[in-house]
Amino acid sequence: MFLTAILALAMSATPQPLYTETSHAGESLDAFATRIAARAVEESLQVSGEICGEIRSEGDGHAVSFYTVRHQTACSYLREPGHTYTGLTYHTHIFIGVTNTDTLRQKIYSPRFSEEDYSHPGYMTTGKVTLFQDGSRGSVRRVSSR
Q: What are the angstrom distances between the C-alpha of 66 and each of 17, 26, 98, 135?
């Protein structure tokens, strides 16, 4: 109950824009997701929370604008007007430090999608691994790892 209240509060926070990544010519979505992982994790560490964005079509490639609500286990996805979105997302799971419960610590650090993540098909990175899921449990696949 307490964790649910905290997540609800974080989800109601105004998302702060961070930066935008754009794919290179001919770059696949998986290659794009892999290439942008290191900076996404670095930005997450700077804001002490998840960052996330919706992947959109841009010219012959893709782009994602990242936002944060500065929470370790919550994200708020925004769609900027005038763009065509793919229906896929990108977000981070990072370990910030000691949390008040082992369950929360496992969720933050673990390279696994949370139950909430399955309502947003797409990519997730921890910095050590980048994963993809299509919205259904059991659909997770490893895109890359360091």
A: 6, 22, 25, 20
Supply the Cα-derived Rg of the chain in whole angstroms. 14
Distance CA 29, CA 21 (A): 12
How is residue 16 written in tokens?
């702060």
Q: Which residues touch 60 (CB under 8 Å, ≥6 apart)?
A: 25, 26
User: What are the domain boundaries of the chain?
Assistant: 2-145
Query: For residue range 6-34, what is the model confidence (pLDDT) as tens digits?
Result: 444 444 578 999 999 999 999 999 999 99
Give the burial class of 129: count Cβ atoms within 10 A of its Cβ; 0-12 exposed, 13-18 middle, 19 or more buried: middle
Please state the pTM of the whole predicted model: 0.81
CA distances from 50 to 10, 61, 125 (A): 11, 25, 10
